[in-house]
Design a protein that fits this description.
Length: 224
């Protein structure tokens, strides 16, 4: 399939085999009824987390060739940031990780940041699982600015659902990027995943699933 990278194909297969990506009928937090569901929480074994971090690492290297700190907001971002900096080191990219506490610590390693002490000069990339409303990312960006971060390059998530937000025709991921002047991207987006799976696993799309996906994308899909 033209335009799709090998690591993206492998990630889609991985998500399918791990049942992180499922097709059927699902009710989302937004109340929308979706013909597919993606849950990064299904990657929980050591082997799965190692594989997942490798996919993140390849996507990060492609999209952010030079940076200093990978910031993973608590809680899901903590294991993602730690495992991904290790995966990045395996492909020749040596960067630090940082994450935040929910409450500031006033003894020992004081403050809200764990890992690399954020400095104004640090070039930072955020890592998270998915973006729905964007609230958690907004909180992370606000925290980083409050502690003096001046050079936030972007955000990477696992899957871009490419759904318009409740208030705009743009996806929450793209809207975050525009609002904060950062690059917001994903390992893969749902359109690419569906296009690949139609060719590699046509049996998935029996019983009118593809038509349901098209209908869902027509109603809720973002314009970018």
């Amino acid at each position: 399939m033209a335009g799709i990278k090998d690591y993206q194909k492998d990630f889609i297969e991985f998500a399918l085999q791990s049942h992180a990506l499922r097709f059927g009928s699902f009710t989302l937090k937004s109340g929308r009824f979706s013909p597919y569901f993606f849950n990064i929480g299904n990657f929980h074994s050591g082997k799965e987390l190692k594989q997942l971090s490798t996919f993140y690492a390849h996507a990060i290297k492609e999209n952010f060739p030079e940076f200093d700190v990978l910031f993973g907001p608590s809680y899901k971002g903590i294991p993602l940031s730690v495992s991904t900096v290790m995966a990045l080191s395996d492909i020749g990219v040596d960067v630090s990780y940082a994450t935040n506490r929910k409450e500031s610590k006033d003894h020992g390693e004081k403050g809200v940041i764990m890992g690399h002490p954020i400095a104004a000069k640090d070039r930072i990339v955020l890592i998270d699982d998915v973006v729905t409303s964007g609230i958690s990312v907004e909180e992370s960006l606000s925290l980083l600015h409050d502690i003096g971060a001046k050079n936030i390059l972007g955000l990477i998530v696992s899957l871009d659902r490419k759904e318009k937000s409740l208030h705009t025709e743009s996806s929450a991921l793209r809207e975050l990027g525009r609002q904060h002047d950062i690059k917001a991207t994903a390992i893969v987006d749902i359109d690419t995943a569906i296009g690949y799976l139609r060719k590699s696993h046509p049996e998935i799309f029996q019983d009118g699933l593809y038509e349901k996906l098209l209908s869902y994308r027509k109603e809720y899909g973002s314009k970018d």
